[in-house]
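Friendly challenge for the regulars: who can give me the structure tokens for this chain first? No prize, just bragging rights.
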Amino acid sequence: MRYAYAITAALLAGGATATLTMQQPVGAQVAQNAPGSINAAAPRPGAPMSFADLAARLQPAVVNISTTQKIQVRSGGNAFSGTPFEELFKRFGGGGSDGQPVTREATSLGSGFIISADGYVVTNNHVISASPEGGSNAVVSSITVTLPDRKEYKATVVGRDQASDLALLKIEAKNLPFVQFGDSTRTRVGDWVVAIGNPFGLGGTVTAGIVSALHRSIGISGPYDRYIQTDASINQGNSGGPMFDLQGNVIGINTAIFSPTGGNVGIGFAIPAEEAKPIIDQLMTGKRVRRGYLGVGIQPMTEDIAASLGLPKDRGEIVARVEPGEAAARAGIRQGDIIVKVDGQDVTPDNTLSYIVGKAAVGAKLPVEVIREGQRKTLTVTLGERPPEDQLINGGQDADQDDSVPDSGQSAPDQATRNSLGLGLQTLTPDIARRLGLSASLRGVVISFVDPSSDAAANGFQPRDVILQINNVPVTTVQAAAAQIDAAVKAKRPSVLLFVQRGNNPPRYVGVQLKK
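First reply, four minutes later:
Bragging rights claimed.
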């Protein structure tokens, strides 16, 4: 190993001396925060002492958006009906509608920003949507855009896209201040950002912070669960407002917060400009947003599921359902396949299957690599068109079933599954299926007992759940289920993969650890 030396010579009274100092070996690995390394990465001189000039330049293009909604509610009626006080209560204005629906007005507030001098305004779709509290009877009757100089304009909806939660409005005005989208692909964790909006309806408010994370998933199903996370203060009413970089470019649209209290706790999320701009461009031309569709129900590769299949976690997604007649079914993708790559891109938590497919064009032919029964296969898929969000199947709701399952707990196979999995099982007969409100053609084993101390209990398994497959092998009897679990034990696998259905909801995969 070669070493670098520094020799310092100093003239001292009475003679000269040399000091020999051994330095870091040439080419050796150094600490991430070693002085020589950190100096190049330290914040540059000129980091903002103030955001005032930037805010003054950008704030005129950020607007307040308010909606007026008409909501039908049922009145409380006359609490004294049928008593001597009924007429007296009516005389003082009470119970006049006798419980009939009453139309009331409600308002909501949000933010937006102007992207053209002739009045195009970007915001979130949920800002201009009817309040969910109003149910199907809520109707937005008007949208008002208020500029920082307090000028108000009635807005019309040019287009909206529920999947991305984006909307484009138009106000009739000219020579308006406006801002432009930037390139969010160049944004890095640690970069300064500035958020401008109207939190709690207070009016124009500027906050600053840094980018805390990129490609953040917040559990919203669909092709756009991929956000910029920031600690810049974002609160209710900031939705639809812009997130700027220090060059004044819009790199995100503030859309959600994570908060147990409803207020800012330092975690906010913005739709990246790289996703928002192409959608806004389509809406501006009057075109409907079209995105690719595979036609599968998918689940991420959790640690338990991956362990049960002997595969690495966080790589690929497992197909829980294949929609008949859609692109995946036509290409030969099967329930139980693990999709690991699409069009040459690895499927990961940061690059999900929905995200890859949703960005692809309708009709595109894409190679899809799957793992099936331990073997890799490549299939060619011709993408269909993703249906509207409200037409997609909701597979996350629990069935409301109260019928019990007989628990024998006496057979040897049933006792074996209790000992190894913590689940008591019964063969799903047509009679039991009828009592549970299930299809008579359904085949599997129904759970009759759950050990509270088992991993199955921790994963939410309940009596009346039906196990259709174990490790991708159909099980129609308790004996077949016990055999699959025994095979996993002999193979020294720590867990098994269960394909389970609750009520009439779509089945899903769950990895369950075996009892030791």
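DSSP finds eleven helices and 29 strands in the chain. The two ends are 50 Å apart (CA to CA). Your move, everyone else.
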